[in-house]
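Hi all, a correction to my earlier message: I attached the wrong file for Putative NADH dehydrogenase. Here's the right sequence:
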Amino acid sequence: MKQLVVLGGGYGGMRICERFKDEEVAVTLVDRLPYHALKTEYYALAAGTLSDRDVRIEFPEGKHLTYKYGHVVNISPETNSVFLQDGTELFYDDLIIALGCEDKYHNIPGAQEFTYSIQTLEESRKTHQAICGLSPGATVSIVGAGLSGVELASELHESRKDLKIRLFDRGPSVLSFLSDKVSSYVQEWFEEHDVDVINNSNVTLVTADDVRNGEDVYPTNLTIWTAGTQPVKVVRDLGFEADSGGRIKLAPHHHVPEYDNLFVIGDCASLPYAPSGQLAEHQADQVVDVLEAKWAGKKLPKLPEIKLRGMLGSLGKSDGFGIVMGKQALTGKVPRLLKSGVLWKHKKIK
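and the right structure:
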């Protein structure tokens, strides 16, 4: 029986287990958590509008599914083995790396030492506890106005209206990379709800008490970093060819060019799309098709272009924005309802 090891129980790793749960293949999934966690909702966990339980989904059960809980410290493609922090060594015929990402601090002094994060469940819990400890009138600075920063700022405003929320955005208007309609709508939403947006920002230093934006100093009681990601260190240390963001460049069938039994999916993979849970699931489906053909001794399939359905974001519980059908911009209650529906469907399917 083929031995497939999957590193990471995020959206991609979860999809792999779902597809193989009834197949005659031994699948071992390695993750630090004993359940799948909805990373797209970590902003709400940190803000306090969702509980820890709300972002958990049990891993699927299967005859040949095995779960190993631990931290991956080394991957050896030469020996087809993976090493965990507790000393465990796992051997594989095929390996899928889906370990996700961590914050990228762009060498800004103090950013790593003095900011909180929402990249992992553990970090989101710590961020929530820190927010709970703030006194009324305290200032929270969020560095990075991508999807995570925007959703966190709006959700935190809804959760703690007593706080002053400040959002640092490198662009001329928040989410300017999406569409003018979405960008203007979200920018105006923040203005109407007294969230202070610093556009065209260039954060140069973070301390325990302030954020420096060029020559300007902004006092803060707590700073949260949402200004970029990179693959986790154990993946970066593999030394494979990577793009400018540190993501591994792949052959057309999603494996590392040097090793046709080592696949990379999700935030660690270099693809012509922005990383997302949706993308990781599509990629996982294609890797399953490749593995099934490979194990059956068949010619590997020609993989179709991945077509994403779009993206949806929230502005609190009753407002939102999105891009669907490739380019159609949505704002208001409809995209927020659509996002709630997608989340409900995701949890019900699991």
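Sorry for the mix-up. The two ends are 26 Å apart (CA to CA).
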